[in-house]
Specification:
This protein has about 170 residues and is mostly beta strands. It folds into two domains: about 80 residues, RimM (Elongation Factor Tu (Ef-tu), domain 3), CATH 2.40.30.60; about 60 residues, PRC-barrel domain (SH3 type barrels), CATH 2.30.30. The strands form two sheets. Strands 1-2-5-4-3-6 form a six-stranded antiparallel β-barrel. Strand 4 and strand 5 form a beta hairpin. The longest helix has 6 residues. The two termini are about 35 Å apart.
Length: about 170
């Protein structure tokens, strides 16, 4: 399991006082309201930043960090990623998982057949879809619903699934 969880990517500058536009990579964009510190990972290193202002515009978050004071400084961090430490992350409800923890799980059917490796999670409006890459390098899409995803054991690194009729056609 990762110690750091990515919550956003800086897309551009905003204004002349060092604010940046952040595309959120978290399912709850409002989680930035309570964010006080983050780790900024950029092309030549990383640093702890202190969040001193947050605004929302369309599908992006405008963030002001204490360490970035000018538009020139802000432009240096374009495409940098914002992370939070796991202990500072929003607590999960039972049955919820961080996407980073799911990637790489071995996917096993209820008939004890290894289907492949969970390689990505697609977030849709209704429910997430788990993308499983088979040993033949094919992708299988599994809806993240109780009828299909039976159990996730992060410690064992296994996701047990039931293949619904028609999913492998």
């Amino acid at each position: 399991m990762e110690d750091m969880l990515r919550v956003g990517v800086i897309t551009s500058t905003h204004g002349i006082h060092g604010e940046v536009k952040v595309f959120p990579t978290t399912d709850d964009m409002r989680r930035f309201d309570d964010l006080k510190t983050a780790v900024l990972k950029y092309r030549t290193g990383e640093m702890v930043v202190h969040i001193i202002g947050v605004k929302y515009f369309k599908n992006q978050v405008i963030v002001k960090m204490q360490e970035i004071e000018t538009v020139e400084q802000a432009s240096f961090y374009r495409n940098a990623e914002l992370y939070v430490r796991r202990e500072d992350a929003v607590p999960l409800e039972e049955g919820e998982y961080y996407i980073g923890d799911l990637i790489g799980l071995k996917v096993v059917t209820d008939e004890d057949q290894v289907l492949g490796t969970l390689s990505d999670v697609m977030e849709t409006g209704a429910n997430d879809v788990y993308i499983v890459t088979t040993s033949e390098n094919k992708e299988v899409l599994l809806p993240a619903i109780d009828d299909c995803i039976l159990d996730i054991d992060l410690e064992a690194g296994i996701c047990h699934v039931h293949i619904l009729k028609g999913l492998l056609d």
